[in-house]
Every structure is written in C-alpha cells, then in structure tokens.
C-alpha cells in the first residue's frame, strides 16, 4: 500500500521497501523509520507530525533522486536485520513445503496450459 494512513501503516507487522527493484528495508514496521534515518543521514529529517509511511516514502524517493538508493540498499544487505529477515524467510519457506494441500486446492492451483 503506497502511503497508508498512520493507523493503517502500524497494522502491518513487516514492511518491505524497494528502490529501483533493490530492497532497502525488509523488517518490522515499527523499526523502519529508525533504520531509514540511521542509514540515510542528511536525506530527510523526521519532524513532529510527520506520518511514518509518508516520511519513509519521501526519504527513499529523495535518496533515489540524490543517487543514494544503491547505498541504502547496500547498507541493508550488510545489516543484521537482513540476516534476520533471511533466516525468517527461510523458516517460512521450509515450513510451507511441509504443508500438504488437499486435493481440491491442488486441482484449483494446477495449470492446464502454459502461462507464458
């Protein structure tokens, strides 16, 4: 959701943000603003009354305009948050492979022809 209200934004547990297809943040929503500010200093300042979602979109957009998008993506890749997120995703993927789908769902998901 692009620029949700503050209330709606905080309903999400996790947030992913991209710049030109590169992940610049993937983690807990409540930590996104702090992470963004610490990894993109002097791009944008968080002021009183600024909606977190709008701030993050503005910050990432401005960083991209200033040619700093790759730097933020690199900072994310080097962060412990990235390592934690990768471990969480691996856990979800491995547990998803263990779930048996009933025949009705398998039939519904099966393709009868090429989708390319």
UniProtKB/TrEMBL annotation:
InterPro entries: ABCG_transporters. GO terms for cellular component: membrane. The keyword Transmembrane helix applies. It is a multi-pass membrane protein. Its main location: membrane. It is found in: Membrane. GO terms for molecular function: ATPase-coupled transmembrane transporter activity. Keywords: Membrane, Transmembrane, Transmembrane helix, Transport. This is ABC transporter family G domain-containing protein. The lineage of its organism: Eukaryota, Viridiplantae, Chlorophyta, core chlorophytes, Chlorophyceae.
């Amino acid at each position: 959701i692009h620029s949700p209200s503050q209330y709606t934004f905080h309903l999400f547990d996790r947030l992913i943000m991209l710049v030109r297809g590169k992940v610049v943040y993937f983690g807990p929503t409540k930590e996104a603003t702090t992470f963004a500010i610490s990894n993109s200093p002097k791009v944008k300042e968080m002021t009183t009354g600024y909606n977190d979602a709008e701030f993050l979109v503005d910050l990432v957009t401005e960083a991209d305009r200033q040619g700093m998008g790759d730097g933020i993506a690199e900072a994310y890749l080097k962060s412990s948050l990235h390592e934690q997120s990768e471990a969480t995703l691996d856990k979800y993927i491995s547990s998803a492979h263990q779930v048996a789908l009933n025949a009705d769902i398998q039939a519904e998901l099966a393709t009868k022809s090429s989708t390319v």
